[in-house]
Design a protein that fits this description.
59 residues, 3 strands, Ribosomal Protein L30, Chain: A, globular, single chain
């Protein structure tokens, strides 16, 4: 199953681990989206930045 992750809020002033998590998903600017395979690693990353991103199912 794949999910689409979209950065919806700014990273300015966020904790370093949240900024690095977004960087690991290649999300740098508001509106950036990536489609990734859903697994335990990605779910953990989403949990760290859940308040900054929108997650939806990708087809």
């Amino acid at each position: 199953m794949k999910v689409k992750i979209t950065l919806t809020k700014s990273l300015i002033g966020r904790k370093k681990n949240q900024q690095l998590t977004c960087a690991s998903l290649n999300l740098s600017k508001i509106g950036d989206s990536k489609i990734v395979e859903k697994n335990a690693v990605v779910e953990g990353k989403i949990a760290v930045i859940s308040h900054l991103v929108k997650v939806e199912d990708a087809e």
